[in-house]
Amino acid sequence: MITEKTLKAFQQYMQSGKMEEDFECSGEDRRMEMLDLLELFMDVSEIVDETATKLIFKNSQLGEMSGEGPKQ
Length: 72
Known about the structure:
By secondary structure, the chain is mainly alpha-helical. Helices cover 78% and strands 0% of the residues. The protein is built from four helices and no strands. The longest helix is centred in the middle third of the chain and has 30 residues, at 28-57.
């Protein structure tokens, strides 16, 4: 599982401009790896959003109305 420390380091890497700098200075193969990583990260972020929504609304009235919570 990814740790908060690792995620924050990746966040800082992108926000600092270092990733963009590395991209510009890299060869074609490394650039493709970086783009693949970003694409995977975006895919994972969609799953994170879905999972967070389920967890937040699981046992709430809003969750029940949207089909995420237990039926009574």
